[in-house]
Design a protein that fits this description.
alpha+beta; 14 helices
Amino acid sequence: MPAFAAASYTPRTMRARRGLLRLIADLSIGVAALASFGGCALQRYEAAPLDPATSASTFESRSIDAPGLKEYMVVHGHSAPEWPVQRWGLTDLTLLAFYYQPNLELARAQAAVARAQVAAATQRPPLAIKPVAQHHSLQPPDTTGPWTLGFEVEIPLSGSGRRAALSEQYGALAQSAELAVGSAAWTVRSQVRAHLLDCYAADRTLELVGVEMRERRSLVGLLQRRFDAGAASALELSSARLKQAEVDSQIQDARLAREQCLGGLAGALGLPLAAVRNMSLDFAVFQQTPAPPNDSAVQRSALLNRLDVRAKLLDYAAADAAVKLEIARQYPSVTLSPGYIWDQGDNIWSLVATVLVPAAGNKPAIQAALARRAAAANEFLAMQGKVISDADAAQARYVRTMENAGTVQQVLDLQSARGKEARKQFDAGHADRVELTLATLETLAVEHRALAARLETQRARGALEDALQMPLEGAPLPSWASEKSPAQTVAPGLARQ
């Protein structure tokens, strides 16, 4: 037997090996226990691939009578006996968009990310375990083995001020992301209202030009008979035919506008166009012209309800928390490293403290955080001023359009009275069919002007509501919470009427 083999089986060496094996086993058990304690809910990776074909098919299958949609709308105020919806008004369409709109779902997902980052940023720093294994080529006679084995544990000690500042910073960012969901919800509602108004304009225009086309055809027929009888000139007849051709072109334009508005409404709702074509729309909301709030109320509502203003305040709070964090980081950070080493039969316990002193007292980072906080304050003040200016301008525009619509309505009332008088004259035999038709066409022309004035008033109303992020009249904005669940929360600013 070789000498080295014989030496390896001496009693002292055997004891050393048994001690080494026990130490390795104990160390393994301890590491496993720490790992299982720190990650008791270990997760496995699960792939989540995107399939464009499947998602496109899912989009195309969306409908206005889906079971999940019914549950969602009933929970948020829609009457269950009135399902399915027969006529879709602005409130029902807004809920429909909140259920399907992908941009709102994206904002909800981003808010979920921000909430998750709060816990991730404020969790305690991990422990570090450093195993030590050394083999000595020279073994003194009084030692039990050539090995040095052990481990160290690094325990970072972070001050409570740092964790509190991190929690405050990421908490403010999470709240800002929640408000971003509200801003996305308001944008969805605004787009739905704008496209619904376009559909109302197209429908009403089609109705008016349809009546005008019948009257123009009647007038051309009357003038043709007069021309044939020598009672009308060729110029009158050609002028009437030209007007008829213009109205026919207006009908085509109105039909195109109707198709375009349906496409825009489908995009705002997050539905395929085929589903929107089958919907019966309710335009009752556009029959209302609520009085605008007074000047002080406009500014107060804008400052209290605008979600972007509230988000800027939270951005400033996050910047202020970043200053607190850098102030806390100017103090040294400490890492304790207790350890144990079995060195050739000798048990050695150690405790090491590592102190990291920030370079230059962390002043450059503090100055950068102070600059970012100052910039956040200026951004808030700039947005605050812009919000007030936008609200004032929108209110002034709404007031002017209301006055203009009132004036045009007075002209329409006078023209309608004149048309009635023309009908009386015709019935009494004092006016012919041509004169009655011309009076009717004059009334239709004023009705076109009145419609344009009402549409401008409704657009100005929408701009004022956007400036305040608050409906002027009617139901408050439906729930838009950051999770599409049965129980949702309405933001105070959007819930007030």
